[in-house]
Amino acid sequence: MSIAISSSAAEIMADPRRLLEDMRAGRVITLPDLDYTIAPTAIVMLSDDEIDNEAGDMVSLTKADTGIDNTLFASTKGYVSERHGPRIKIAVDPPNRLTAGGKGASMSIHDYNIKGEHIPSELADQVKRFIDLNREALLAYWDGQIATREFLRRVRPI
């Protein structure tokens, strides 16, 4: 028997360690504000150091936001600025979300360097155009100069 925990995306972003503790305990987490459920089988085991190093805000950008079929993810630098610079994450397979075991790539906002899964050249070109059109907002969000709501207001689709 599993226990269902209701939480909001904001609560999880504020305390990601609690989410992992609930998942490790076999609890089902529902996110009503995102109409999403996280089952205990979706656990990705991270050490406490990895949780601390990955903290920061991240926002999903769908086709309505970007004009690109694949979902993109923009983030603040959080605590990861030592490992990489500003970048956009790209959902590859599945193309509409990042999942444990799924395929993804990332593209540098500065030099378009791609890491991770191979992406089709057409998709890479679309992401480059999106970055060019939104570089100022992407960098302001990365640096924590603007909140997610303001970032989403500024983003323009290609």
Your description of this structure?
With 158 residues, the chain is α+β, with helices and mostly antiparallel strands. The chain has two domains: 4-52; 56-154, no CATH class. The protein has helices at residues 9-14, 16-24, 48-54, 63-66, 121-142, 148-154; strands at 4-6, 28-31, 36-38, 58-61, 72-75, 87-93, 103-108, 114-116. The chain has a five-stranded antiparallel sheet with strand order 4-5-6-7-8. Strands 1-2-3 form a three-stranded mixed sheet, covered by helices on one side. Strand 7 and strand 8 form a beta hairpin.
Sequence-ordered SSE layout with sheet pairings:
Blueprint: E1 4-6, H1 9-14, H2 16-24, E2 28-31, E3 36-38, H3 48-54, E4 58-61, H4 63-66, E5 72-75, E6 87-93, E7 103-108, E8 114-116, H5 121-142, H6 148-154
Parallel strand pairs: 1-2
Antiparallel strand pairs: 2-3, 4-5, 5-6, 6-7, 7-8
- Rg calc: 16 Å
How many strands, which pairing sense, and closed or not: the largest β-sheet? Answer: 5 strands, antiparallel
Q: Kindly, what is the distance between the CA atoms of the first and last residues, rounded to a whole number of angstroms?
A: 47 Å
Q: Please, how many domains? A: 2
**Which series of helices and strands comes N to C?**
EHHEEHEHEEEEHH
Q: What is the residue-mean pLDDT, rounded to a whole number?
A: 80
What gross morphology would you assign? globular
Return residue spans where pLDDT drops below 50 for at least 5 consecutive residues: 42-55
Number of strand segments? 8
